[in-house]
Structure formats: structure tokens, C-alpha cells
Write a structure and sequence with these properties.
heterodimer, A: globular, B: globular
Chain lengths: 255, 318
């Protein structure tokens, strides 16, 4: 089983790194991180915050874009272009295909994030602004990418590439605004509304769990359990999403 | 035990947002025997590709049974002994030929040394030994078809399923694919393929199935399907200047040559005996036989059943 999953993962990785979009996104990310230095000149006294904030935000946005566009492209294309036929006509379980794709995309994101982070840290080291806690912030961003990729794979199994991209990006935005749903439920007068808000709060992905940018940039203390909770959340939520993707794909008619 | 068996299989599709069902297969029963080359022919939309997808567990029947090597076709293990080439394969064009075959060999858990040997052998077998290091995006259509075929053989399968393997190929490419199929049979493999190209079917198939609108209209050997009776003869004569013929009908006349159609054997004998009297030379006598194409066109157009129909018109193959 692992041989087959790793073969598919490796092939997915190979396809991703031969994709022009990946390099385009990487170039943009590196340019944005570099641009933060120019931007920081416009503000007096908060140069360091601007560079760190902008750098982390760039890694965040370009990482998510990679997860969505390359992730969805690679899974949907297999189905649309029917390359999946030659794979699934072999002794491969469909869940192995889904997990192999996911593993390959995760590997791509790992390389992508490493390149962006390396450049970001180099800029900070030159400026003498490096802070080891930024490493934890980037690690949590990477966890977020892993969750977004799982969602991208699920939506690719369910729907067309465009719809899957829209749904994944929508969940990314919603996932970062989920705290407002919590606030809303406290202000609602009806019980049914409160229950609905709470239910959505727990069902939708809470990407706030992976966001410690504010604390790190402003030099605030990061609660010690944050990393542990984020890891646990990724494992539980990510597994549930991937399990659903496998279940959906298991009975999908490959027309 | 048949290699592949479909029993009373029905399959329908529903387009998005529609409740209307479109029937692709209506009670299809078919069995493929070990060691034979079986060709399915049929018009577009007749259900050829659907049959293949069902056999490989890519789609599932509404009702009926599909068995591969005696097991439910949806079981993954039954595909260990199968090789498959889809129609117009879109292959991973960012891979080189060698990488592509190596990737598929990995899926069968073959070791590195075996993979290297297998990839080299297969590239030679399909005539791409010098092109293995080129990315598939630089391959011609014929080369893609051949590398796709090599991919289908990477596990040295007992049962090879090919969906339209000759489509879009030039005569040389078709010949090569035909030779590979015949070579597979010589090695004791079973081949099941769909095609539009009837001449190839006639040339290499042990048995043929004719699919029309989701049902098997006829199945059997070419001899069983196509009547060997000769309904008429075409006689080409040279040198007849004047005078009428004792029998037959002149179909065409070109310079001093005429083409005569004769409807019975006794008329043919009469015509040949009086040739000398007319000072004519016999150029050729061609018996007109029903071809697979005649059968195909008649069945596809919904003409009355042919006496050559297998099993008295039933859709079963055994």
C-alpha cells in the first residue's frame, strides 16, 4: 500500500515542480517579501513589524494559492484528462490514489514553504531582526496549508475545478473569520440561531488556530498550548476531511 | 472459467441536474474466453467504452454482474493480472517515456532492477527504444498510442484490454499495434479490444461482438457472423466488341473491358463457356461475399436480423 501511495505522491510532486504556476507564485512571494523592506521605509519606528508582518502574510497568501490552484489542478486534471483511468485500472485502491495525491501536494507545499521561509529569514538575518518564534509561526502556517490542501482534494473529488477553487478559497476566508460566528451566537436572541451558529463554528475549519502572526510580530507571549492544540486540530480535522474525500471518491463514477 | 464475464448488465447515466436516465447498456451479457482475441465493434455511443469501464471497475453496473477472473470486477486484486489502454489516452506529458513506464511499474510493486529491465524491453517492443528519454509532450499521436500500450503491458498481464487501440493511427501504426496484439495471443494472453476499424477486426479477432444501442446484436467467429454464401459474382471481360451476353448484367464499361454481374453459379458457367465464341478474354472472376462491414451497417441501421446471427439472435456469447 505504501509503495503505491508513495509512487503516486512522487509523481504528483514531479508534476507540481514541473508546473510553471508554482515558480510564478514563488517569484511573487519572494518579491513581496523583498517589497516589505521598501514599504517599511514609509513608516517611522515600526520597520521591523512591517517587514515581519508582510513577510508572514506573503508566505500565508502564496502558500494558500499554491495549495488551491496547484492542488485542485492536479487532482481534477487526473479525472478530467482521464489519466486516472490508467491508474485505477491497476490494482490500486481509490483511497490510495487520494492519499497519494495529498501526500504529493503536501511535499510540494513543504518545498514551497521552505523556499519562501528561507528567503524571509535571510532578509531578517541581514537586517538583524531574526526571531526564532517566527519559525513557529511559519510551522503553523504550513499546518494551515496542509488543512487547506485536504479541503482542496475533497472539493476536487466532489466538483468541477472552478467550483472547487471557489469553495476552498471561501473556506479559507471563512476559516479566518470564524471567531465572529462565536461572537454572533452570544448576541443572538433565538435558541435555534445560537445552536446553528455554534454548530457552524465547530463544523467549519477554524484557521485561527494556526494564526499566531499577531503575537509573534508584536512580541507578545504565545500561549504554550497553541502549537500542541494546532497539531491536534490538524490531525483530527485533516483526517476527517481526507476520510470524507476517500469515501466520496470510492463510489465516484469515472465517466 | 471465462476471463471476463458480464451477465445481464444494465447501465444508465444521468446528466447533471436532470432526473432523466440515459440507458447505455441494456441487458448486456458477454464472456471472454482464455487465450482469445475478442473485438467489440459498434457505432459511437453503442456502449463499447462503458463495457470496458465496467470490466475494470471504473464504473459500476445498475444491475447485473461483472466478473473478472471469476471475481467481482470492483475488487482491486482482480486487476493485478490486467493491462489497460484507454481510448485517446491523455498521458502524463511532463514525464519522459522511461519515467512514465517506471511510474506504472512502481504501482505493481516491482523492484528497481526488474523495472529497469521491463522498461527497456517494453520500449524496444513498441519501437520507442531511442525515444525513451523524451518527454511525452514531444511524442506524436502514434508514439503516444505505443507508449500507452507499453504501459498496459508493464505488469506482463494475462488479460489486455484496449479501447480503440487503432484509432487515429496511420497504416504503419495500425499494423504495429495489430502485430503487438497478435504477439500477445502467441504468448498465450487474452486480448479484449473495441474498435471502429472493421478490417483489423476481421484480420486478427478470434471472435467478434457487435454492440448496437447497448445490446449485443451478434457474437461469434467471423465465419459464424458473416455468411460464406456467394450471392453474386463479378466477372471482368476484355475484348467483347459486339453482341449481347447470354446471361448476366453489364455493370460498367471501360474501353474494351466490361464488368458483368452474374447472380447464379449456373449462369457463371454458361457465361464462361460462351466466352470463346465472342472472342473475349477472361480477366477476373470475383465472388461477392458479405463482409463484416455489411453486417455492421445492417445491424446498426436496425435492419431485420441476419441468418448469420449467433445463438439465434440472443445476446449471449456462449
Amino acid at each position: 500500500m505504501l509503495t503505491r501511495i508513495s509512487a503516486i505522491a512522487l509523481n504528483t510532486f514531479r508534476e507540481a515542480i514541473r508546473h510553471r504556476i508554482l515558480y510564478l507564485l514563488l517569484i511573487f512571494a519572494v518579491a513581496m517579501i523583498s517589497f516589505a523592506q521598501i514599504l517599511s521605509l514609509l513608516t517611522v519606528g515600526s520597520e521591523e513589524k512591517i517587514i515581519k508582518d508582510f513577510g508572514l502574510a506573503s508566505i500565508d497568501v502564496f502558500g494558500v494559492l499554491t495549495a488551491v490552484f496547484i492542488g485542485i489542478g492536479l487532482v481534477s486534471r487526473e479525472i478530467e484528462k482521464r489519466t486516472v483511468y490508467t491508474l485505477l485500472a491497476k490494482p490500486i485502491h481509490r483511497f490510495e490514489f487520494v492519499l497519494g495525491k495529498y501526500a504529493g501536494l503536501s511535499l510540494t507545499l513543504l518545498v514551497n514553504t521552505t523556499v519562501m521561509t528561507a528567503w524571509f529569514f535571510l532578509v531578517l538575518l541581514i537586517k538583524g531582526m531574526f526571531d526564532a518564534r517566527l519559525g513557529v509561526a511559519v510551522l503553523l502556517l504550513f499546518f494551515q496549508f496542509l488543512l487547506i490542501t485536504a479541503l482542496a482534494v475533497l472539493f476536487s473529488c466532489l466538483s468541477t475545478p472552478i467550483l472547487a477553487s471557489v469553495m476552498t478559497l471561501a473556506l479559507y476566508v471563512i476559516g479566518h473569520l470564524l471567531w465572529s460566528l462565536d461572537l454572533l451566537s452570544a448576541r443572538l436572541s433565538t435558541e435555534a440561531g445560537r445552536i446553528l451558529c455554534r454548530a457552524l463554528y465547530y463544523v467549519l475549519p477554524n484557521l485561527g488556530n494556526f494564526d499566531i502572526k499577531g503575537e509573534v510580530v508584536h512580541g507578545l507571549t504565545v500561549a504554550p498550548g497553541r502549537l500542541l492544540w494546532a497539531t491536534l486540530y490538524l490531525l483530527l480535522y485533516g483526517s476527517a476531511v481526507l476520510w470524507t474525500a476517500c469515501a466520496v471518491f470510492e463510489r465516484k463514477e469515472l465517466q | 472459467m471465462p476471463i471476463l464475464e458480464l451477465l445481464d448488465v444494465h447501465k444508465s447515466y444521468r446528466s447533471h441536474l436532470s432526473i432523466r436516465k440515459y440507458w447505455i447498456l441494456r441487458g448486456l451479457s458477454l464472456s471472454i474466453r482464455e487465450g482469445e482475441i475478442f473485438g467489440t465493434i459498434g457505432t459511437n455511443g453503442a456502449g463499447k467504452t462503458t463495457t470496458i469501464k465496467l470490466a475494470l471497475g471504473l464504473i459500476f453496473p445498475d444491475t447485473g454482474v461483472v466478473r473478472l477472473f471469476g471475481e467481482d470486477a470492483s475488487k482491486v486484486e482482480s486487476r493485478r493480472r490486467v493491462g489497460f489502454l484507454p481510448e485517446n489516452p491523455y498521458l502524463y506529458d511532463y514525464l519522459t517515456g522511461e519515467e512514465f513506464l517506471d511510474f506504472h511499474a512502481r504501482l505493481f510493486g516491482l523492484g528497481a532492477a526488474t523495472r529497469r529491465r521491463r522498461v527497456k524491453d517494453l520500449l524496444e517492443r513498441v519501437g520507442l527504444a531511442n525515444r525513451g528519454d523524451r518527454q511525452l509532450r514531444h511524442y506524436s499521436k502514434g508514439m503516444l498510442q505505443r507508449i500507452g500500450l507499453a504501459q498496459a503491458l508493464v505488469n506482463d498481464p494475462e488479460f489486455v484490454v484496449l479501447d480503440e487501440p487503432m484509432s487515429g493511427l496511420d497504416p504503419i501504426g495500425r499494423r504495429e499495434v495489430r502485430d503487438i496484439i497478435l504477439d500477445l495471443k502467441a504468448r498465450g494472453r487474452t486480448v479484449f479490444f473495441s474498435t471502429h476499424i472493421l478490417s483489423d477486426t476481421e484480420m486478427i479477432c478470434d471472435r467478434v461482438g457487435l454492440l448496437v444501442k447497448g445490446s449485443l446484436k451478434a457474437v461469434g467467429t467471423i465465419d459464424e457472423l458473416v455468411s460464406r454464401e456467394v450471392p453474386y459474382w463479378e466477372v471482368t471481360l476484355q475484348g467483347i466488341v459486339n453482341g449481347s451476353l447470354p446471361c448476366g448484367r453489364i455493370v460498367s464499361r471501360r474501353e474494351d473491358r466490361i464488368l458483368v454481374r452474374v447472380d447464379s453459379q449456373s449462369d457463371l458457367r454458361r457465361l464462361l463457356t460462351v466466352l470463346n465464341g465472342h472472342g473475349a478474354t477472361l480477366v477476373s472472376v470475383t465472388p461477392a461475399r458479405q463482409s463484416l462491414e455489411d453486417l455492421f451497417i445492417r445491424e446498426a441501421r436496425g435492419a431485420p436480423p441476419s441468418p448469420a446471427r449467433a445463438d439465434g439472435g440472443h445476446a449471449h456469447s456462449n
